[in-house]
Design a protein that fits this description.
Distance between the termini: 61 Å
Helix content: 25-40%
Number of strands: 12
Order of helices and strands: HEHHEEHHHHEEEEEHEHEEHEH
Largest sheet: 5 strands, antiparallel
Number of helices: 11
Structural class: alpha+beta
Length: 321
């Protein structure tokens, strides 16, 4: 149901929610609810008569002061960080995302909330349609099989189905991925939402197995794929001194410093999941992002891939490796 079709009682309730978040003008509210300014003015008058504590502010703005936040300073920081991540991930003009950001920000102390809301201008992101987000979220919530057309890189679009067992946001690119059982192939699959088209909910229902544990699926994942049929492999890397400080700062899953080198460099190991060819596909782009500041020591297939791509870059620039 769109805002313009909201019954007045629901619209009044939403106006209250919005005015508790930050000061707003009747013009802003009119655009939000697709009503006339005069209609919103009448709504404000009704709410004032009901004793809702609406204050008039300069600039024809209205606001409802909130109670002090019950969060500790560290809890407020955690909520603020989550809200910022939501903002960086949010597709532009998706009303559900904008509303979610505002509701999350309502948990913050008023002065921090005001800064957060003032720092969230609209983002341009054409990857997701509102229909796609709604279909995927409903499939997960209602336990209905999702049908869609999947556009994998360098492949023709393919009709697929999925029992959505879990949704994960990649720590690498902040994209959303749906994972679960493919009923046609009877196998566990992971799909990137931005590659889905023509989604629709089927009448087929499913049950998520009680022993399904997302943390085990995502264990040792560098992005979201984790174990992809090839098991775990141990990676050994050598970092130059100019990159060592960043490695010491941490934040890399399963990375362990094996040796401090005399020149200030580091040798490290990490365990990651592999694909059916036992290749750590999700890790390669991270390794390459370090450029000449890292050397792949093992396994052999990763070292060969790393060297071959370095040689190709050198070939393009006519420099021998």
């Amino acid at each position: 149901m769109g805002h313009s079709a909201l019954p007045r009682a629901k619209r009044l309730q939403k106006i209250l929610e919005l005015l508790r978040l930050k000061p707003r003008t009747c013009q802003e509210l009119a655009e939000r609810f697709n009503r006339s300014v005069r209609s919103i003015q009448r709504d404000i008058e009704v709410l004032k008569d009901d004793g809702e504590g609406i204050e008039d502010l300069p600039g024809d703005r209205y606001f409802i002061p909130s109670l002090p936040s019950s969060l500790s300073a560290v809890e407020a920081l955690a909520v603020y960080a989550a809200a910022r991540l939501l903002y960086h991930h949010a597709p532009n003009s998706k009303r559900s995302y904008l509303t979610a950001m505002e509701k999350v920000s309502a948990l913050l102390p008023e002065n921090i909330r005001a800064q957060y809301l003032n720092s969230t201008p609209p983002l341009q992101d054409p990857r997701f349609s509102e229909g796609l987000l709604e279909d995927v979220s409903r499939a997960w919530k209602e336990r209905r099989v999702l049908s869609f057309q999947y556009c994998a890189p360098n492949k023709k679009p393919e009709e697929r189905k999925l029992e959505v067992w879990f949704l994960e946001v990649s720590r690498v690119n902040l994209d959303i991925y749906a994972m679960g059982r493919d009923p046609d192939k009877d196998s566990f699959r992971t799909f990137k939402l931005s590659r889905m088209q023509h989604t629709r909910l089927l009448q087929e229902n499913y049950t998520i197995p009680p022993d399904f544990d997302p943390s085990k699926v995502l264990n040792h994942a560098w992005g979201v794929v984790g174990l992809s049929g090839g098991g775990l492999t141990t990676i050994h890397l050598r970092f130059k001194p100019e990159a060592a400080y960043r490695i010491r700062e941490g934040g890399y899953p399963s990375l362990h410093i094996e040796q401090e080198l005399p020149d200030g460099g580091l040798e490290v190991s990490l365990q990651v999941g592999t694909d059916t060819d036992r290749f750590p596909l999700e890790l390669i782009s991270w390794v390459q992002s370090w450029g000449s500041r890292v050397e792949v020591l093992s396994p052999a297939n990763l070292r060969e891939r790393w060297l071959n791509e370095a040689r190709e870059v050198a070939r393009l620039t006519n420099d021998p490796v």
